[in-house]
């Protein structure tokens, strides 16, 4: 277990655009979040040049059996806009992790 991890790295422009589109589609509340589908969309669009980003730090990171679990501590009652920012953060962490993992699940 590690704490206060800075997951800086490279995010590809298409993957970043996909993260933005996913969060934009969730905003009006017209669709439900589907983690597997969102991850598959990011993987499918992880194809072009990337640029450095510094996503928010991961407060707790646990690696178990080759799987990385990233946690961020939030208040008990997040508001709707706060949830969307948190969703963008989680998807960005995932997109950055793909740079070092050539195989998408």
Q: How much beta, percentage-wise?
A: 15-25%
Mean pLDDT across all amino acids: 77
Share in helix: 40-55%
Order of helices and strands: EEHHEEEH
Tell me the number of helical segments per DSSP (H or I, 4 or more residues long). 3
Largest sheet descriptor? 3 strands, antiparallel
Radius of gyration over C-alpha positions, nearest whole angstrom: 14 Å
Uncertain segments: none
Gross morphology: globular
Distance between the termini: 23 Å
Number of separate structural domains: 1
| Alpha-beta content class | alpha+beta
Task: Compute the number of strand runs.
Answer: 5
Strand order across the biggest sheet? 1-4-5
Q: What features would you describe in this structure?
A:
By secondary structure, the chain is an alpha+beta fold. The protein has one domain (2-100). It has three helices and five strands; from the N terminus they run ββααβββα. The protein has helices at 13-26, 35-44, 80-97; strands spanning 2-5, 9-12, 50-53, 58-64, 67-71. The strands form two sheets. Strands 1-4-5 form a three-stranded antiparallel beta sheet, with no helix packed on it. Strands 2-3 form a two-stranded antiparallel ribbon. Helix 1 (13-26) runs antiparallel to helix 2 (35-44). The radius of gyration is 14 Å and the shape is globular. The model has no long low-confidence stretch (mean pLDDT 77).
